[in-house]
Amino acid sequence: MWGKYYSVLLYILEKAGLFGKLRTSTIKLSKELNSTQQTISRKLIEMEKKSLIKRQLEANGLILSLDEPARIFLKKNYTILEKVFKKKIRILKGKVKSGMGEGKYYMSLPKYQSQFKVKLGFKPYSGTLNLSVKDRSKLLEFISNLEPILISGFKDKERTYGSIKCYKVKIKDLGGAIIIPERARHTQDIFEIIAPVYLRGYYNLKNNNILEVEK
Fold it and tell me: Is the pLDDT of residue 213 over 90?
């Protein structure tokens, strides 16, 4: 209902809180919110008429504060967002799939290996395990609450190697990591994990077996 005013309301909330007052100007607001001064002026007038804000004009600007309907609106939105962001997937299931052997080559490169050891705390086996998920959004949601660890790319005389984002996970009794290469080599339903050991042999995994990774 008041979606077109959302960015302005959030800005006032961030700068002044639910009950504070914000001294500003339409020029400053237009720059901060990437809009025109005319659009900002029009929105503020509309918001005042709808009792979303209180607006007091001054010689060199204006004073803005949230009115009660805006506070109720923002609190309701916060409650919805809080539920979404607090909902955490702690276990991600993937189906074991065969790869093309590229992971072994990249994992064996010394400039990657040295970074893995320092940043992840283990030297990974020279190879990755491919797992497929039915819905890639589950993977994205799973890693959204994990801190990405960046493995920097590098160049040699022949080519450039891209960076890799790593997310530490637990694989049963082992520590490991989900890796997302800058230059993806797989379809959207496949992700790769690395560990200090050869996972297929360690857990006697076959294609289409289900493996769980945890946070």
Answer: yes
Residue with tokens 């920097």: 152
CATH assignment of 91-214, given 3.40.50.620, 2.40.30.30, 3.10.20.90, 1.10.645.10? 2.40.30.30
Question: Cα 212 vs. chain centroid, distance in angstroms?
Answer: 21
CA distance 111 to 164: 12
Query: How many Cβ atoms are within 10 Å of 186's Cβ, its own excluded?
Result: 17
Instruction: Judge whether 168 and 116 are in contact, CB under 8 Å.
Output: no
Please indicate, yes or no, whether the overall pTM of this predicted structure exceeds 0.70.
no
Pairwise CA distance, residues 91 & 176, whole Å: 14
What is residue 92's predicted lDDT score, i.e. its pLDDT? 92
In this predicted structure, what is the pLDDT of residue 145?
80
Q: Give the tokens for residue 178.
A: 């989900």
Alpha helices by DSSP H, 61-135: 68-86, 102-107, 110-120
